[in-house]
Amino acid sequence: MTSPTELAAPAAAVANRRSSERKWGVIRLISPVVLLALWQLGSAVGVISQDVLPAPSLILEAGIELIRNGQLADALQVSGIRVVVGLLLGGLVGVALGTAVGLSRWLEATVDPPMQMIRALPHLGLIPLFILWFGIGELPKVLLVALGVSFPLYLNTFSAIRQVDPKLFETAQVLGFSFWQRFRTIIVPSAAPQVLVGFRQSLAIAWLTLIVAEQINADKGIGFLINNARDFLRIDIIIFGLIVYALLGIGTDAIVRMLERRALRYRT
């Protein structure tokens, strides 16, 4: 028979672990605040030059200025559309090709080598070529995002399908499952975790690609705000624009992680 002391020991261990997690969580929240305070203090006493790195308060004022005059909202709308369209296009291509190559040895032999060759190219280095091919409008920016997004999803989808437990396929064959039954009940649930990891990687690459793409021949978007601020030596707006890019990346990644926990809750 289990004694009360033996029952209390696991509960105490769980409580200690939760307390430790809360402690480290508080430290993670405090450390950026301390950094900002030191930055503000260094600017106030003149250790940090305002011409090199404006104080956080000045950057905040610049952001409020952009919010009040509506420039930030317009820029967010344009940049958001570019990322969403690029994600949809590149995501569909990456997942479709990864699925096809993962399911077919013949396609792996014929499609995968060219894909790996293209993947080895720095896609941001293709900007001059994309401008010559597609002009300086929205199309080259969206296609650059799509190109950068497609490869993480392609590789993760392909790898996830090839790592599905063969015993599951053997069981499905014994049960007489059709191809679509195997795909729906075995392949999709087994590959979903790794595909979602690829989607998170693609999101990071999408925002990184957009930062570079919007620096070239852009007349709207967050990149345009940054370029325009550079011409007027507004370092505060430049830094605020970079912070917006970072917050968008973190925010979209958090959304995907939330969807991942919801979609894969059966694993817990």
UniProtKB/TrEMBL annotation:
It is found in: Cell membrane. One of its GO terms (cellular component) is plasma membrane. InterPro entries: MetI-like, MetI-like_sf. Keywords: Cell membrane, Membrane, Transmembrane, Transmembrane helix, Transport. It holds the Pfam family BPD_transp_1. It comes from the Bacteria. Residues 72-256 form the ABC transmembrane type-1 domain. One of its GO terms (biological process) is alkanesulfonate transmembrane transport. The chain crosses the membrane at residues 26-48, 83-106, 118-136, 232-256. It is a multi-pass membrane protein. Belongs to the binding-protein-dependent transport system permease family. This is ABC transporter permease. It comes from Mycolicibacterium wolinskyi. The lineage of its organism: Bacteria, Bacillati, Actinomycetota, Actinomycetes, Mycobacteriales.
